[in-house]
DNA sequence: TTCAAAATATGAACAATGTTCATATTTTAT
DNA sequence: ATAAAATATGAACATTGTTCATATTTTGAA
């Protein structure tokens, strides 16, 4: 169909350029989400920040949802770095798990629009999106995995206990965040933080 | 300013008529939310179902959000009836609290758009909306209040324990629902129901 | 270097959204 | 019956995501 000097080379060049273009749009999307927030996010605002027309966006993404959810991995990376920095000096095991869970929640309080993308924004049904959902739902577990394994090895928890705890922590923190960010419950940040900590600690105590 | 035959009578008539009009729109909104769902909800679809022009809606509500959140009380009433019917024959106390919490969650699984209105749809900041947030955030507590009091009287729980449990149940169930409804986690309804039950039971065991 | 073809970027246009407003219609009270 | 007040309404607007024909740029061979 196409004639190339060197198939592989040309393909790579094309892909590199295409990825670069995608990255401009992804970067713009992330900046808007972290800055002005999701209510300022639109096809046109993204394209403007990226330095292209809104129509150009559609040459690289099938729709704006695809673009938005391509940010998930980057935000997870950033969140992971935030959490690791906050917990790096703590003693291993239970203490570190608690601190990890708290930092994880703090990240979303800092970037409510990232919480929206992760948990609220609707994902159209597709096998690709099922993977993204999975990535999001199991993210806290991933953050804690190493410490959980440490606890299992140390026999302070059984494998089964850990499985239950991580599920509960995940649901609990998601709910605490949703109520705080969307329903102003509790209305005071201090109360929120206190409640977050005490509920996480209680979950770990079984 | 205005001249009336009988001040009180005329005011009442006007108010009755106005409330009737509001109810037509509220009823239409509830029907769409429970039927086609929130993605089918628009100013125009509401007005069509109510039998009026979309512009008429703005003579009775300052915006569509006001109308949407006026449905909250009705949905809470309906949810309460659903829960009471599901739990009416159960023995009082802990068992009934657990069943109440499960039924509460089931109601939202049955009507995901009601969950959206309750927990996801953004409320513009106002003192009126703060009350609605409060109503939503404390709804599960209200549903369980009688049984909690029964437990306290029976001395199976202290006042302080109950306060902590209700807060935890509320956050936990909100999170379980959000992950299931929005992130398909877990993907199987049976797993969801099992997880819901086991986490509620664990929360009650302290 | 030149030029045709392929690739890419873009604005016009569309449908759907919430909202406002001037005006048409209906209701009210005398 | 009629003037005035109340109410209902469609036209219009701004904003949204998306599509598409076309303008522009890039590419590769002569």
UniProtKB/TrEMBL annotation, chains A, B:
HTH tetR-type domain segment(s): 19-79
Pfam families xref list: TetR_N (PF00440)
Signal peptide start and end residues: none
UniProt DNA-binding residue ranges: 42-61
Organism domain of life: Bacteria
GO molecular function, one term: DNA binding
Protein name per UniProt: AcrR family transcriptional regulator
Keywords: DNA-binding
InterPro entries in the record: Homeodomain-like_sf, HTH-type_Tx_Regulator, HTH_TetR
């Amino acid at each position: 169909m196409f004639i190339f000097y060197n198939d592989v080379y040309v393909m790579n060049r094309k892909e590199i350029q295409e990825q670069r273009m995608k990255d401009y749009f992804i970067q713009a999307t992330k900046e808007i989400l972290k800055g002005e927030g999701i209510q300022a996010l639109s096809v046109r605002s993204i394209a403007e920040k990226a330095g292209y027309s809104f129509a150009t966006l559609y040459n690289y993404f099938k729709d704006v949802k695809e673009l938005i959810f391509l940010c998930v991995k980057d935000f997870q990376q950033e969140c992971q770095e935030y959490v690791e920095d906050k917990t790096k000096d703590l003693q291993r095991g239970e203490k570190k798990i608690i601190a990890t869970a708290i930092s994880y929640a703090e990240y979303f309080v800092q970037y409510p629009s990232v919480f929206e993308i992760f948990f609220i924004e609707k994902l159209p049904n597709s096998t690709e999106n099922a993977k993204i959902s999975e990535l999001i739902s199991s993210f806290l577990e991933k953050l804690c995995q190493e410490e959980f394994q440490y606890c299992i090895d140390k026999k302070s928890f059984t494998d089964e206990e850990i499985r239950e705890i991580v599920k509960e922590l995940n649901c609990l923190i998601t709910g605490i965040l949703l109520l705080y960010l969307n329903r102003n419950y509790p209305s005071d940040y201090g109360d929120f933080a206190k409640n977050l900590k005490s509920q996480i600690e209680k979950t770990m105590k079984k």
